[in-house]
Amino acid sequence: MHNIVTEDEDKKEEEERIRRALANCGYPKWTIEKVKQQMQNKPKKDTKTKKSDNDPSKGMVVIPYIEGLSEKLQRIFWKHRIATAMKPHNTLKSLLVHPKDRRDPNETCEVVYRVDCKGCDKMYVGETGRAFATRLKEHQKDAEKITSNRNYTRAKRKDSLTEQNKSAITDHISQENHVINWEGAKIIDKDSNQHTRKIR
Rounded to two decimals, what is the model's pTM? Predict the structure, then answer.
């Protein structure tokens, strides 16, 4: 045997559900009571009659609910016969949805990059499938191996012309004794296809 839910019980259940929803959205407890009272005191509209030109209401404004401030604004608007509706400052969407954290461009993978020389107008253009910062650090380590404890003489320069290093950057440092602009290194393109990255 099933219990039959009466209309009054149904209303109370729905009212309680609305109370919980408003509380979760930041509305104060008195909001539901005020709206309920306004609905009970509101006279039924005659749909056949047109709205009078002498209607005391001058429209409605929607304001964000800020405890202590919104109530004062509501009273001020009402003095000028302007109705107010309040919306929560924190909505469910604002609590759940967050913009993606901005990613460091140096951590970008599958890129074509450029490194300039400080000593001349030459530049190195390379590609990597790994993070740009990782590849750049490898270049810097290779360059440090060449420049550390090295006296750059004519004989050394002559020998460097026939040396083969890991990249054109280290070859350039070895042959010309130039300084590389590591701080100015930058990504110039992004491509997930390694073949097309190599021919750019």
Answer: 0.46
